Amino acid sequence: MLFAVSMTFIDQTIVSIAAPSIVDELDLSASGMQWVVNAYLLSLAAFFALGGRLADILGHRRMMVIGTLVFVISSALCGCVPDNSFAQSWLIIFRATQGLGAALMFPAALAVVVAVFPVEKRGRALALFFGLSGALTALGPLLGGWLTSWTWRAIFWVNVPVAIIALVLTALAHIPHRPRRERLDVPGAVLVALGMGLSVLGLQQASAWGWSSVATWACVIGGLAILVVFCLYELRVEQPLIKLQVFRDKAFAVDCAVLFFSMLAFVPVFFFASVYAQVSLSASPNQAALFLLYFFIGFAIASQWGGRILDNRGARPAMKLGTALGAVGFALWAGKLTDLSMHDQWPYAALAGAGIGFLLSPASTDAVNRSIDASYGEVTGITQTVRNYAAAIGLAVFGTILTHVTTDKVVETLESKGVPADQAREAARDIAEAVTGQPDAKSPDGEGAVATTMREAMSTIRLDFAQANQWVFYGMAIALGIAFLCALMHPGTRVTEDASTTGRKPADD
């Protein structure tokens, strides 16, 4: 099961490192590239609850195989994207179906793992499961940097041999087939997918439509309203897609809140740090991957300690420590971005990674252990929906902020060099929407006054982009700060006996 889900987590971040290369070869806009990344996350969030429910109804083994097949076929098609005007739509569509495959696969895989271990051993097993999944998320950019040096299409094709091995291992594992005769909540599945899709669409397109646009707010408010309707519907239906009663457990609700605010930073940081390295630091994809290695090292070390803290003292201490370190790390990292020195930033990147490492596995494992009368598939659907919806929102919101701030700062730079305001605004918008990395090598063509001025100002524009990224990283620090406040409200209890046989027995921390 670990081998199977490795693809889903790597694909959350592997595209980030190849983004400049994809944008340059296929002539995508920056907002279009963000949608290529976000389509996967949004699809994961929208269909995770459905995947968890289908795994319970149709059987864990069957849904794991179906999800793997959908995922790997979509991966192969992403790698075969044509170099024409349909390229952007092609990538977004099949990235979304990739997310659907992952959403069908992951809850089934986790349910199999949970069924194997008794509760007294489950904490360590799930800590390994979630810790490895987080490590693979962080490993994505490193693998992406190596593959992109050959061709960016390989970041999708690499999933094919991995999927084949996963399917062979699944067949050898002889997983029992245990379907349940229950109804599927189709209206609930439609409502949650529509609500999440609309709300993220509004946030993502705010950079293009503007925050004063009626369309922006119609999508955001409309999407949130649909999610409210979804919650009200789920509380009334006999066999809901998600059993919202699990949120009555205060510890579970706090776990989900901590996951939500921390995931606003965790997955998006790989995209923004990668593009920052390739634009502001003029780094190659491989160099950008090494830049992100600092974050990964901090994450990997701290995730081991976080699992031990969970086993010995419960989730609350690990979450408090992790959110506090993460907030401080992201804030200090943001302050160093304008130094334009990769070497000076590594301690703060590692500190930010350590913060996420401390909290990710404990929060996820503690939430799954508090399933009450819901199945583990359903509870996993809830926690993973929260995680991926937050990641999609983070990418959309921070992407919009980055575009707006970059545009404003480049306008100031060009106007200070004598470019007329309207031409400066148009040129700045082009730069913000076409971030392709290596600005020295890809500076504007042409002999006109604006193009000449922009070429001469590229060093200043790199600094402008770094200053715009500071807003993003400070935003991530604020998200972790809010997560810290949420962690303080955790009751500190631990699940020490199997709820399915003896009832949940909380132990004071």
Work out the helicity level: over 70%
CATH-level-2 architecture of the largest domain: Up-down Bundle
Structural category: mainly alpha
Q: How many helices?
A: 17
What's the total number of strands? 2
Question: Can you characterise this structure?
Answer:
By secondary structure, the chain is mainly α. The chain folds into 2 domains: 2-184 and 241-406 and 464-497, MFS general substrate transporter like domains (Growth Hormone, Chain: A), CATH 1.20.1250.20; 185-240. 79% of the residues lie in helices and 1% in strands. The protein contains 17 helices and 2 strands. The chain has a two-stranded antiparallel ribbon with strand order 1-2. It is globular and about 70 Å long. The two termini are 31 Å apart. The chain crosses the membrane at residues 34-52, 64-87, 99-119, 126-148, 154-172, 184-203, 209-232, 252-276, 288-306, 471-490.
Which features would summarize this protein structure in a list?
mainly alpha; 17 helices; MFS; 2 strands; globular; two-stranded antiparallel ribbon; transmembrane transporter activity; transmembrane helix; 509 residues; disordered C terminus; Growth Hormone, Chain: A; MFS_dom
